[in-house]
Amino acid sequence: MQRITFDLDCLRTFSTGMELGSFSKAAVRLGRSTSAVSAQLKKLEQQAGTPIFVKSGRGLALTEAGETMLAYARRLLDLNDEAVTAIQGSELEGWVRLGLQEDFGETVLPKVLGQFARAHPKVRIEARVARNAELIERITSGRLDLALAWSDGSVTTPHHERVMDVPMCWVGPAGEPRVWQATADEPLPLASLEAPCLLRTAATDALDRAHIPWRLSFVSPSLAGLWAATVAGLGVTIRTPIGLPATVQQLVPVVSGLPPLPSLGLVLHRAQAQPDPATARLATIMLQALQDVRPD
Question: For the residues 195-219, what does the mean pLDDT come to?
Fold first, then answer.
């Protein structure tokens, strides 16, 4: 069989276009013309020896081969970029202060810290896991360099980047899903983090719009307490699919009798418009890691 070496530039264009949902946007981000992007995608398809796109309405969708190609493209690009920074960026020094939500403490933080430490052993990272309000306050006051936080669009910082929109979901104990019948005499039990909480507000707003009576059955300052209460059956809660432990499960609104929920923005805040090289590199690794936990 003929040995094929995929063009990394073509793979980067392909991956960026799928990430942004538009190859015209990818052309702008990568500083290329739309015709150059089209040529790269055609070259990639020729190298693959099989179609990776299929027409879907007015746009394009991935074939099965295209889905496989995208997964490998991301892995190859991650490895390439890590190799470049390990060779060229190992002399970075300094101190980066990172803040993020508890949802990402086990799913994203270990990978980010491990990859960054291997490439830049001379840079110290101070990581802080906190709630949204504290993260925003620390970015604004200059006590954090980077912060990954949820957003409903009501609070912004001068230097922020919307990473993705993540669907919110009702969450109950793992096992057979149950129907949550709520009445005036028996309101829906709701387990929640302490206020202020964007997801708690979204949950109560959705229940109010659906005219479903509810009560706060459990309030916790941490996710660990919230999961314990949910597993114990003290009430349903609301999070996103990211970082759910195996002891809980998403509830399907139609089946569970709960109302549908909107999406929530995920935003990366920077303290400075032009961060130092160490902070900029950590932000890049963070954004790459988030693609691996993006809900389908």
Answer: 93
pLDDT in tens, 154-203: 878 899 999 999 999 999 999 877 777 777 778 999 999 998 899 999 99
Longest dimension (CA), the chain: 71
pLDDT digits (tens, 9 = 90+) for 218-239: 999 999 999 999 999 999 999 9
Domains 94-165+265-292 and 169-261 share a fold: yes
What is the percent of the chain with per-residue pLDDT over 90, rounded to a whole number?
Answer: 45
Q: pLDDT for 142-158, tens place per residue?
A: 999 999 999 988 878 89
* CATH no. for 8-88: 1.10.10.10
Query: What CATH code is assigned to 94-165+265-292?
Result: 3.40.190.10
Asked if the peptide bond before residue 196 counts as cis, ω within 30 degrees of 0, the response is yes
For residues 123-162, b (16+ Cβ closer than 10 Å) or e, as one string? Answer: bebeeebbbbebbbebbeeeebbbbbbbbeeeeebeebee
Structural domain boundaries in the chain: 8-88, 94-165+265-292, 169-261
pTM for the predicted model, two decimal places: 0.68
* Reported CATH class of domain 169-261: alpha beta
Q: Across the strands, what pairs with 60?
A: 55
